[in-house]
Design goal:
The structure is a homodimer of 198-residue chains.
Chain A lengths: L3 H6 L3 E5 L4 E3 L7 E7 L2 E6 L5 E7 L4 E2 L2 H5 L6 E4 L3 E7 H10 L1 H27 L2 H15 L4 E2 L2 E2 L5 H8 L3 H13 L4 E3 L2 E3 L1
Antiparallel strand pairs in A: 1-8, 2-7, 3-6, 3-8, 4-5, 4-7, 9-10, 11-12
Chain A binds a DNA duplex (30 and 30 nucleotides) through α7.
DNA sequence: ACCATTTTATGACTTAAATCATATAAAATA
DNA sequence: TATTTTATATGATTTAAGTCATAAAATGGT
């Protein structure tokens, strides 16, 4: 998103997280802008029974957790490192200063938020009213489009576990496994030693 | 969102829609920026079986449908007038010109998108994993916070039909009616001649 | 190389919400 | 005012996805 040298100019500091580390928590006041240098971060919620819902998974060069910064609200979800990750963060004040002095960044932020809102709109409609197979396939297609999944001879390798697909679509693992099996039978995707290709 | 005189300066034109009129359709290329002068607009999708999902309802002074404009994608949902409505619209080109010449508007757009993303995050987690009563109550509380529902002696009047609550939460009318009844019994809200107060 | 954990997998059973049917009240319209 | 349409309401039934149990393969750490 934002060039690292520019972030460093605004007192950007580098932080390292281990897989599973919590970066920030739901309900807490936002204080920084976060951008991924390397690794993988998910934002999630837990419902009253402890079931996880993954709001999104973020990768290299992506930022996450800005909306509450702009609207003075607490975080609506947690941010957790999925793998060991290196992040660069700057304070809220410095972030606004940076924005003020770099009008092109505003447009980048707008585009990024628009992209995320688009994903949420698509998935909201899916989750609320489509059947499991439809939901899973949509998530897969959207992810191929947006994330950099590798194209192999068998097709795009879907780099999600069944559990992650479940947590992203609001389904249980068993349901995802069954949906994927059924989609394979219909020829909509391939399973080659447990890995999913589309 | 954007002052009407400013929109007029950028060739803004006023359009009138009757209740039920389609403003734009899912899958179509976006061409304009839309802002409500008066009336009420919903964005929605229909699933394969024709069930409606309402992405959001928009009121006076609010804009809608910009994200696809910024990311060069087709509309992810339809926009439909819920009541007779008066809108002001400007072309995509003029909108970008306006943004370029008015840097303060960029921040307003960012805040608006952040607010909508926040709503989507909260509702996504609700819809995917909370029970009907929880979902309905969350929608109601969020709507009180964001929309200008009138405060009366009995509490805030929830200006939604049961069907609209269903379409916003991914539930069926009957389920919403039962959830609301149950929430009333628990004292979480009031029903006074069929109207819901919180 | 071994053990613990995670991931994928499948069958049997349960359950919560959807569906279907029907009714009445309220609002809109002719 | 009468009539159609929309919104709220409730009971009975169905069903799709969740839950539970169990297992085997794959992965990761020591």
């Amino acid at each position: 998103m934002i060039a690292i040298p520019l972030l460093e100019k605004y007192n950007g500091i580098i932080k390292n997280y281990q897989s599973g580390d919590i970066i920030f928590e739901e309900g807490k006041q936002p204080t920084h802008y976060y951008q991924i240098i390397s690794g993988e971060v998910k934002m999630n919620n837990y419902n009253d029974e402890g079931k996880e819902f993954i709001q999104g998974i973020f990768y290299k060069n992506q930022c996450f957790g800005e909306p509450p910064l702009f609207i003075d609200q607490v975080y609506p979800a947690n941010a957790v490192a999925v793998t060991d990750s290196e992040l660069i963060i700057i304070t809220k004040d410095k972030f606004f200063e940076l924005l003020k002095n770099n009008s092109d960044i505003s447009l980048a932020i707008i585009k990024n938020l628009s992209q995320r809102l688009y994903y949420k709109s698509v998935m909201a409609a899916e989750i609320s009213s489509q059947d499991p197979e439809h939901r899973v396939l949509r998530l897969i297609d959207y992810s191929i489009e947006q994330l950099n999944f590798k194209k192999e001879e068998a097709g795009f390798l879907i780099n999600f576990t069944r559990q992650q697909i479940g947590d992203l679509t609001g389904l249980r693992v068993e349901t995802v496994i069954r949906a994927i099996k059924s989609l394979e039978k219909k020829g909509d995707l391939k399973i080659i030693n447990r890995k999913v290709y589309r």
